[in-house]
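Support case: user asked for a sample of complex input and structure output to validate their parser. Sending the pair below.
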Amino acid sequence: MSEVKIYKDTPIPGRWQQFWQRYRRHKGAMLGLMFLLVILMFALFSPLLAPHDPTEQFSQFLRYPPAWTEKGINEFLLGTDDLGRDLFSRIVYGSRLSLGLSAAVVLIAALFGILLGAIAGLSKGIIEFAIMRIMDIILAVPSLLLAIVIIAIIGPGLPNAIYAVAIVLIPHFVRIVRATIKEEMNKDYVIAAKLDGANGARLFTHSILPNILPPLIVQVSLAFSTAIVDIAALGFLGLGAQPPNPEWGTILSQSRDFIQLAPWTVTIPGLAILITVLSINLVGDGLRDALDPMESRG
Amino acid sequence: MIRIIFRQLTTLALSFLGITLIFFALTQLIPGDPVIINYGNLTPGSEEYLAAVHAMGLDQSLFQQYLIYVDNILHGDLGRSNITNKPVLSEFFTFFPATFELSLIATLIALIFGVLAGVLAAVKKNTWVDNLVISSSLVGYSMPVFWWGMLLILLFSLNLGLTPVAGRISYVFDIEPVTGLMLVDSLLAYSKYEFAAFFDALRHLILPSLVLATVPLAAIARMTRSSMIEVLNADYILTAQSKGVSRWKIIWVHGLRNAMIPLVTVIGLQSSVLLTGAILTETIFAWPGVGKWMVEAIFRRDFPSIQGGVLLIAFFVIFINASVDLLYAVINPRMRRPK
Amino acid sequence: MQKNFTLFALLNLRDSCQTLFGLTLSIALLLLTGCEKAAIDLDAYNSTLVYCSEGSPDSFDPHTVTIGTAFDASARQIYNRLVAFKPGTVEITPSLAKRWKVNADSTVYTFYLRKNVSFHSNEFFTPTRSFNADDVLFSFNRQKNTSHPYHRVGNRDFAYFNFQSLNTLIKDIRKVDDHTIQFVLTRPYSPFLSVLAMEFTSIMSAEYAKALTDLDQKNNIIHHPIGTGPFQFVRYQADAYIRYRAHPDYWRGKETIEHLVFAITPDPSLRFARVTAEECDVMSNPLPIHLKALEQTQATDVISQRGLNIAYWSFNTRKPPLDNKLVRQALNYAVNRKAILEAVYYGSAEIAKNPIPPDMWSYNDNIQGYDYNPQLARNLLYKAGLPDGFSIDIYTFPEQRAYNPNTIKTAELIQQDLKDIGVTAQIVTYEVGTFLQRVKSGEHDTSLQGWIADNGDPDNFFGSLLSCEATIPGQNSAFWCHEEFDAIIQDAKTISKKSQRAKLYKRAQEIFKEEAPWLTIAHTRQNLIVNQRVKNLEMSLSGGIFFSGVSLEPQVADDKPL
């Protein structure tokens, strides 16, 4: 038996509930989230969802166009490539690489970025100066070029591409964390905590971390989309994932040779990259608006 | 003002020191014998080899080597490409004009159309125009440049035959590189080809500059829109409105001028984005610029070119950013101290 | 503050803004519709041939470069040699040397040089004399003498000169008179004439070298090359283009193409797009897929030529059970080469049965190759005492080569075929430099590789790849040293009479077939895609492209593609 409610009960929504309510109002962001969930599902359940092995070659079905065209057949939904591999299965497995690798990149970048940012924010003088100058310099080199140079030194291949893109993303995290810390440190409640004798580490975890979470989340979404594009770009230049890996950028560079004979092998992987990045950017926009209610939503 | 310039100059100098330090550290990480990397195939122990060792200061302390390195850079000596055996600095200046021309045109496109679209969207807020600008700028912002370029080539060059596939100008025109900027050089060849070469060069610029402009254009449109909306809601605009100032004047003079202030920093940040895009755009359109040169150098493992090229590009970006900061200080009254 | 804002002042005016917008739009439309097409100089189009090449030359110095791209850009257009290959053959014809004499034991070669051959001129140099023996001396001594003032210029090795062992082979080069020169060799060497037709023996101007020494600009002998060839160098924009002009005083007569441009386009798909959009007239190295795509269009032709190359799978005869002839024969029968030709070469190659290609003189067409026959292969293995098969590795490298567009795919197909006869194969790949090193050390069981001829002499195959001598540096990756075979090919090197040599090489091919140290896979065709207005273009057997003698069919205003 349920309790009998005597008082009119309108609970104040919790922090996350408020956030979700605000997020939901953003139509584009919801659309992005939906797409992202679908792509995530592809990534998580690729072996179940992909009809074929991504590297299996059907030598009697070379360059079949997508199923909805006249010459297409249903077995190959998005058609086949030059070696008779099912494009749909390759895209599905590729989502695994794209999302997984980018997640790894963002994780590495965020970890080091927060650490360096915290050190810079909590310290003064030469250490802060040195960290920030180094970050400025990393920012001054175009991100892709820097990644390429790092790969030139440590050699091509997937793991190295991950490190390279991660290093490029670190400065953004450092800047945000440092700026927020500097801002928060001058606020009354932090000064009060300081006067209470809280040390640097305690100040950081209890007073500052909760406050840098919102901008950090937004930065993560930004970094995520950058990571996907950069990893694909490296794959495209032949410096990232190597064939027959079904990484989207690598597929694109491989199918460049068939752009006139089998244009769908070029359009489809690119579309996959575009949709993924677009979804992440939409979600990022939504997050920013929802996390920062003060900022006017135009 | 002088204060600001002075501050920018010190920042520039410090950045220069920092960059050289980082690059010097990076050169230590390159696998292989540094002499062979920088001077090509010399037999270890030979006279030339020992001379190279001495020239690079490899027989001295690391600090001495760094000093030699910085000294060389200050004298404009960035080493020689180990493929072509030409000085890296002169190689850089043969490729740089192409990138500069492409980036300049792309920046202009991005600025003109980005600001126009942003203002339009802000003024027509919440109409279909606004929605169109918002959604297309989101798509543009998320566009993988290398794919976008391929699509445009496929559509406009191969299927419709409207634009050239690649290169800076048709090879029918024998254009002497004077400035390295094809638009200028083709006009200098006016006596030979009249305007034909110039128009051909323009035609070759359409697709690459459009591709390169896409991401910055979208970013500028988004930024202009939100900044413009903010400004249009500001008190002074409402005051102006109530005083009966014309709508056009409000938007283009009072509104845009103030909305442009934060935009300047965005444009500064775009210079790095633009160069990243240039690497891919140049690769796709066989555009002989710095980006393509760097990618080729990496495939050829031409380390002196990579080191020197990236160093110069970094200088360039830092210089642009410093100039933008300066511009920002000039146009933003809040940044100036009262006299 | 107001006056700082010219940009905003511009925006201030509604009219100027609209004008700007309108102007941009109309320019865009104008350009897109291509209104100015007609203004392009038709004469310039009709006298310019644009060649989409596959890469930048690493240098214009024909003595030090090693890759075909660089030879195409320098030696084959700018320079001449003493002798040349007759186009499309390996036959030696006169070039800068009008005729020659060889002594009985092939140790003294005397060349009588052509008179009134003029060098190019450029901003640094105008020749005052025509070509003579000093230029020949300069071109060879520069490579031979380490103390020669131009030896270190360019800072690179003379790779071909050393690889052909000319530094030990040539004892002396004597200038008999201004137009007679004599090469004295340390030992009899009948392929010498073929060697002198190779690009690395290109003749430079000694007078130019002297002029540059006086100017202290020695490097310009590389950056601004001067030769006697059909085209003179005009300008090189790195990674963009190379421009040449017809040499007005070319000794064979001025070329009909006035302007020759190499449009450097490393990406094959872009190169193909450019040739189909008629931005270039000739495309180098098309992929097999491009030839397929062309079947649907009309505007272009394909020039296809058999190449002097071979792709082969060699068996390390020092490792059991590959030391057994029966096993090697079994492996020869086990592989379905027809399938490889279809899947890897898309039909642009033919099955090889001899270690030398059919266009090489002394090719033995009577040899009966090994046909695909897995049953016979199993029988042979049974005979060899290996009824249950065995396991081996296949060494190869993951790169495209002129003789094999996809080595990995080839290895995978071989692997599948071997499974049928009970042989388990493991594919081992290394980056090409490492691969060569490891194979030279002999650690492999089998290796999948190939060879492209340096010159038109059979010794370039037999001697370099299959002699006992070649097992020491390991170029002979089968480590196969057969007494009778080796005696024959050593003999053939010292005899000057071609028919006698051919007889010996034909016998050598019989032994090769019987002993089966390799599986000979394929001889690849080399292709060019050309615009139909290009006439008389031919490829050399070595895969090089020469634009001498090519002409363009003049176009009239209407069908001009620009």
